[in-house]
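Table S4 entry, GNAT family N-acetyltransferase.
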Amino acid sequence: MITLKGEHIYLRALEPEDLAFIHTIENDESIWEISNTITPYSKYLIKQYLEHAHKDIYEVKQLRLVISSYDDEALGMIDVFDFDVKNRRAGIGILVKETANRQKGFGKEALNLLVNYCFTHLDMHQLYCNISEGNKASIALFTNQGFQEIGLKKDWNLVNNQFKNEYIFQLINK
């Protein structure tokens, strides 16, 4: 049995009921930097996305899961993207929505569950993430999970009319 359950949270597939939650996240300008978003998303577009969210990761090359508390509060989302079966690698992105829910271990637990899932069930050889140079919390989260910094992409992202550097971190399944 595939288990994506931790001690305090579990990871679940997207549901139609997540429309408002995802709409709020996708339209929060304060996090557009980490999602490389530059325009708002309509509920219509997100509804269409949710209608196709059931598709297989091997087909769409992406898997988005909700980080949920055991009282079914949606805390955030965690993604597998750029899923590359041939080279057995994928990217990972994570967001805990509310500031009050950060630094409580939810992200750490979600990342641990997803890394184990990717290595055990998806047979990935390596995972990577891209983190803005100033995002100290994400750098700590991924390095504590064993990801290693492998490079710095200079002036990689234009944010508020200023170029920012971005690190790339990698975890190889030994």
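The CA atoms of residues 9 and 106 lie 7 Å apart.
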